[in-house]
Design a protein that fits this description.
Largest sheet: 15 strands, mixed
Low-confidence stretches: 1-5, 552-560
Oligomer: single chain
Structural class: alpha+beta
Strand order of the largest sheet: 1-2-5-4-3-6-7-11-8-9-12-13-14-17-16
Radius of gyration: 28 Å
Mean pLDDT: 88
Shape: globular
Length: about 700
């Protein structure tokens, strides 16, 4: 480490300024920071995704993921701006700012974090990191910044500012003095009343349930977040009376979409609600359904999980969506902005490798326009703007929304009439060896008799029949919101559904397999945030299930017998386990707690979980077969929350026993990659009295 005889240090093109550093780091995350420093010193930033995939832990994901930069990437900077980043930490945001601005000054209290920042961004030559306490450094900062950034920082003002005033008002008042005329402050912060906290996520800073909702009842708090009205009061009292609110989703840490008061989300867009990478959470209710209610009532701005506030004159950005957890060659940003002649949509590559992907849109526009000329389907026009592709904002309502409306009012004939019209329009010249297989319902806008395809990112040199496109679109439609499938299946079986569409189960399964291959082609081994949540995420605890467990434990042997005879199967298709993607085994027991049952593994399933009972038990996996062939040592591929005994049995002291397998590994074992896979189990179970299980559980903890 630096001994501070020198006041500055250069790491690559980055300058570290220790002039006002005390020589002590007053906060630290421990040994992990030294590990991150070594990674930053030895690993190029473009390989950080590999490091995240190999280490699979929260600090590495949080500090090294390039997705963290999304929160500032959308800002329309010209490259001439002078910006200040307060609380820069290990530089997850700094690198993005350095690519967009002329000059970046960071203020960071920790030397170790500043070194991580410098090493990871050493190829930049426009970064200066001032190490030390903000109160010491602030008086010498210039007063002509175009932007000042507080990303996850304002909430800590109470701990780093010494003042008799409201520290949050004081912080923004001080910062305002360092802006040039027309300059802006950008604040990213959690919403104290964010939907996820009501649903059971712990408060991010205190790790306590409902801490923010209860308005931080303890005298001393690590940090404090605010509701929208409270944050507006702070802005106004600090002299920042002109501001715009944006709503990062699912939150500002790993933002995939940014909404505004001009463009709020629809319920079907909010599919990323389980993001508890670092701590267990409750699941009191379905956040997506709850969001649907508040969206319908115009209350989403009050319940957004995070806020992003930009002071000063309003910006032209209305909406932004990121697709950068894909393979590098497909990482893009889609942005809606106000223009002189109406709103426009711009698609921009987020890596050099993705530039070719954007350029292909121009050719795809031309060829699809030729294919559908004179048909009932128009193609949204596309123009080039440097590396970006620009589209006009097309009026209309999405076909997805129209289908939802008909389904929710149980007008099934009208629902199928829309499906048939879709098939007719997209199927024009279906023999053409150039098609856009991603003409899903959300990518079709309907304005009276006019139907327009607005996104043809995945058009390619292959033919797709109208039937194939319909089945794939219907599959995606159901995947995005399971209640759609349930609603439709209240009127008919899946076989009846396929029959009405002139299809059969084999065609449907083929469509599902093709969709999985399509998604695998987009990610090319890259783990999405949903995948990472499934792999390294903490427990999701459903209180209703806990209550059922406790009731079962209290009701004696009859309840235990019932719970012991309950086997539940879960699939994870990339959204985590849920009741919607599960079923109960209805096979009869063969005596002595023995049961044989089969699981037809969907092609899109990534993990398979078997909950053998709803009570403490001993389980023996007698056999496991893949497409009829015995899998030797299937238990070796299994993860479990029970203890393994020498005789091969599993000992569960929990009311939620589980056994889990990686679906892809099972497919490889069966040689069934991309095909249907039947997994057969024979297991034997015996119950353990609840009082004994509790005693044994306590002994294990000791």
């Amino acid at each position: 480490m630096n001994d501070f005889r020198e006041k500055t240090e250069k790491i690559g093109g980055v300058t570290l300024d220790y002039t006002l550093y005390s020589g002590r780091d007053l906060y630290c995350d421990g040994a992990v920071e030294e590990e991150l420093l070594e990674i930053a010193q030895t690993t190029p930033a473009e390989r950080f995704d590999e490091v995240i995939r190999d280490r699979l832990d929260w600090p590495t994901l949080y500090h090294l993921s390039s997705i963290r930069g999304n929160i500032v990437d959308w800002l329309p900077l010209t490259g001439q701006e002078k910006v200040l980043e307060i609380g820069a930490g290990p530089g997850a945001i700094t690198g993005t700012l350095a690519k967009k601005a002329k000059e970046v000054t960071c203020v960071e209290l920790s030397q170790v974090r500043s070194l991580i920042n410098a090493y990871r961004n050493r190829d930049a030559d426009n970064i200066c990191i001032r190490v030390g306490n903000f109160e010491d450094i602030e008086p010498v900062l210039p007063t002509d910044y175009d932007y000042v950034f507080l990303i996850g920082v304002l909430e800590y003002a109470e701990s780093y500012l010494h003042t008799d005033q409201d520290p949050f008002v004081r912080e923004l008042s001080i910062i305002r003095r360092h802006l040039k005329p027309g300059g802006r402050i950008v604040v990213a912060i959690e919403n104290r009343l964010g939907m996820k906290y009501f649903a059971g996520s712990r408060e991010d800073h205190s790790a306590r349930y409902y801490d923010g909702i209860e308005n931080y009842p303890r005298e001393k708090n690590v940090a404090r977040t605010f509701s929208r009205p409270a944050l507006e009061r702070i802005l106004q009292e600090s002299g920042n009376g002109q501001y715009s609110f944006y709503y990062p989703y699912p939150d500002y840490k790993f933002m995939s979409a940014l909404y505004s008061d001009e463009r709020l989300p629809s319920e079907s867009e909010l599919n990323e609600n389980l993001r508890n990478f670092d701590q267990d959470r409750l699941l009191v209710f379905d956040e997506k359904k709850a969001f649907g209610g508040v969206i319908a009532d115009g209350l989403f701005p009050q319940f957004s999980n995070s806020f992003l506030v930009v002071t000063g004159p309003s910006l032209p950005v209305v909406y932004c969506k990121y697709s950068n957890d894909r393979a590098p060659q497909y990482r893009i940003r889609t942005m809606q902005t106000r223009g002189e002649n109406g709103d426009i949509v711009t698609k921009t590559p987020m890596s050099d490798a993705a530039a070719a992907h954007i350029r292909r849109l121009l050719d795809s526009c031309r060829r699809l326009t030729e294919r559908y000329a004179g048909s009932g389907l128009m193609i949204a026009p596309c123009e080039s703007d440097g590396d970006a592709a620009v589209f006009p904002m097309i009026p209309g309502v999405s076909l997805e929304r129209m289908l939802d409306e008909r389904l929710m009012r149980d007008d099934i004939d009208a629902f199928f009439a829309l499906l048939e019209e879709y098939r007719s329009r997209v199927g024009c010249r279906e023999e053409t060896a150039f098609a856009d297989q991603d003409m899903i319902f959300s990518n079709i806008l309907v304005d009276g008799e006019s139907w327009t395809a607005i996104d043809y990112e995945w058009a390619a040199e292959e033919a797709h029949s109208a039937q194939e496109m319909l089945l794939r679109s219907l599959h995606v439609y159901f995947l995005e919101d399971e209640k759609r499938r349930r609603r439709l299946l209240s009127h008919m079986t899946m076989n009846e559904l396929y029959a009405r569409l002139g299809a059969d189960v084999d065609e449907a399964m083929h469509s599902i397999a093709r969709e999985k291959a399509f998604q695998d082609g987009i990610t090319k081994g890259q783990l999405s945030l949903g995948d990472l949540r499934a792999v390294l995420g903490k427990k999701v605890i459903v209180p209703a299930e806990i209550a059922a467990e406790e009731e079962g434990a209290a009701s004696g042997q009859a309840a235990q017998a019932k719970n012991l005879a309950t086997v539940q199967v879960y699939f994870d298709t990339g959204k985590g386990y849920s009741e919607e993607e599960s079923f109960f085994v209805d096979e009869p027991y063969q005596g002595e707690g023995m049961i044989t049952f089969h699981v037809d593994l969907p092609a899109e399933a990534r993990r398979l979980r078997i909950d053998p009972a709803l009570c403490p038990c001993v389980v023996l996996l007698h056999s496991m077969r893949l497409n009829g062939q015995t899998l030797a040592a299937g238990d070796k591929l299994m993860k479990t929350n029970g203890s393994r005994e020498k005789d091969g049995s599993l000992f569960f002291t929990t009311f939620d026993p589980s056994m889990e397998w990686d679906a892809e590994k099972l497919r490889r074992k069966a040689g069934a990659r991309g095909d249907k896979l039947r997994v057969s189990f024979t297991i034997q179970m015996a119950g353990i009295p609840a009082t004994m299980a509790a005693s044994l559980s306590e002994r294990e903890k000791r």
